[in-house]
Design brief:
It is built from three helices and three strands, in the order βαβαβα. Helix 2 packs across helix 3. The chain has a three-stranded parallel β-sheet. Helix content is 43%, strand content 22%. Helix 1 links the parallel strand 1 and strand 2.
């Protein structure tokens, strides 16, 4: 099962992505910000990350962006 991380500050946008992807055979995780994503990345790996700009910036600044994991 593919694991997808969604990083999005806006609750409505997060819920929309969860709804759109929820009918697929995917394991979905969502957080509000990059700091929450960093905590999850300590424990899990992901096949794909959807992120808002702030999440991308946090991952890039922290050098914790998983190599080889697509980031949209």
């Amino acid at each position: 099962m593919k694991k997808i991380l969604i990083i999005e500050k806006q609750l409505s946008a997060r819920e929309l992505l969860l709804k759109l992807l929820g009918n697929k055979e995917l394991q979905l995780f969502s957080v509000e910000d990059g700091m929450g994503a960093l905590e999850l990345l300590k424990k899990r790996s992901f096949d794909l990350i959807f992120s808002d700009l702030n999440g991308i910036q946090t991952l890039n600044r922290s050098n914790r962006r998983p190599l080889g994991t697509p980031l949209i």
